[in-house]
Amino acid sequence: MTVNSKTYWKRAASTLLVTALVGVTAACGSNTSDKPQTGGAAKAPTGPVKLKLAYDSGNTIPSTSADSNEAMKYLQDKLGIQFDLTVNAWEIYKEKIRVQIASGDVPDAFAWRTMDDFIVGMIKAGEIVPLDEYIDKYPNLKKQKDLYLTKYQNKTYAIANVRNPVASGDAPLIRQDWLDALGLQAPKTMDDLYNVAKAFSFNDPDKNGKKDTYGIQIGFGANAFIGVSGLQEPFGIQDKWVKQADGKYIPYFATPAFKEYLTWMNKAFKDGLIDPDFAVTDGKTAESKVVSKGQSGIFFHYMSRVNDFEDNFKKANPNAKLMPFEPVKGPAGLQGATGRVEYGGLFVSKKAAQDPAKMQKLMEWLDFGASPEGQTFNLYGAEGIHFTKKDGKNEVKSELISRDMPGTFLRTLPMQPTEEMFVSKKNSEEAQKIVINGNKMLEMFLKIPTPMDFAFSPVGSKYRAEADAFINTNIVKVIMGNTEVKDWDGVVKQWYDRFEGAKWIEEIAATAGK
Questions:
Q1: Into which CATH architecture does domain 34-165+343-409 fall?
Q2: Number of neighbours of residue 255 by Cβ within 10 angstroms
Q3: pLDDT tens sequence across 34-60
Q4: Are 335 and 233 spatial neighbours (Cβ–Cβ below 8 Å)?
Q5: What phi and psi values does residue 71 have, to the nearest 5 degrees?
Q6: Residue 184 burial (CB count, 10 A)
Q7: Are 108 and 347 a contacting pair, CB within 8 Å?
Q8: For position 353, what pLDDT does the model report?
Q9: Predicted pLDDT at 9
Q10: Cα(168)–Cα(435) distance, integer angstroms
Q11: How much is the pTM?
Q12: Distance from C-alpha of 369 to C-alpha of 411, rounded to nearest angstrom
């Protein structure tokens, strides 16, 4: 049998990891000296503290030698740290770090993008530590801790590189010029949304005498929906797992609210309000129908589509205008948008936590990245080297920043201000103002996902891709009328039966500490 190298390393890493973690668990036993030391002040180190770090980067990787990278040297000198870095693109990194850890070489801190069997195995073996009591001691990290959602049994295990949650994919966007042409106002309720979408589909909003528009743009590609979360929020559908009166959890698609949503979507599709080709329209195509072709009038997506609309459709149609509007209210008065959060982050090893000086420097490095000073370093590098201040402005040496890439040496940043999210300076002042005002509006309606949405389940890990495809393809059938809403309970029962749903939910609740 021929085994390709990628498969070989995956198998080798899995075997080594199991062996290594079993050995670690046995060795820990009742040895109290192995417990992380969190109390007391660290002794002042006599020289730079060495930190062994591993993480992925989406950028080209610069030199990671202080002798040839002035950004790295500056940061080391400033923080009293000697970096020992392994930085790779994700596709390379994820294989290398598995093998490295499986061989027993666990970095002081390393990045991982999710809570999966790899990370849970390390938690159970005691190889990585919870970070809650450390975070509260560092002011810039403490400000962000509500956005650190990578938890196991209600303890925080990773520090994420956070983004402003207003970078949501649920922003309601509408063709304002179509509203004006038809003498309509932006919708405020789901009934309003239905009526406006119907007018967009049938009342010739672009006034070209053709039936070539429709109200609502959604899409479906790779077994996932595009642009539907903003349509679910008015029905109170946000959390993946919903707690019932008896304290037990069920999946969101098993709730009565989800059947209300399906009923509305089925009627809207049957009545011609939704892109008739949505089931074969992937994400990029759905976007193009809004921002390039100008075919649809309502889209729940990222605020940056305003920029794309100006760059494309608006060039040939200068009177066209895509505008944000407030999330609509559902039958029970519910409204909102799901905030965007980063999952995964930097995990810290037990051996780092056992060394107070090492742990202190590690947290200082992370806290620096999350500070305003860290943001300046990320953007401009070191003052006096990569930039100088003149008349209150930064004069940047672009070639040095391109060479040294200062941001490579940080894993945290302060949260980007709302007025900067998706604001593109290359776009017109009008577009920038639309995006800024839209972000500020949306900020008032944001709902942050819960850690339980990302909790680990061995059963879920086994079935997730197949189970998601099963549910989503059946949702498509209901929306298009191939399956009736009254038969949805049978679909849910099939999900429970085929994918060990009851056990899956039990595991989710247990690992989330619920």
A1: 3-Layer(aba) Sandwich (3.40)
A2: 18
A3: 444 444 444 555 789 999 999 999 878
A4: yes
A5: -65, -45
A6: 17
A7: no
A8: 97
A9: 38
A10: 12
A11: 0.88
A12: 7
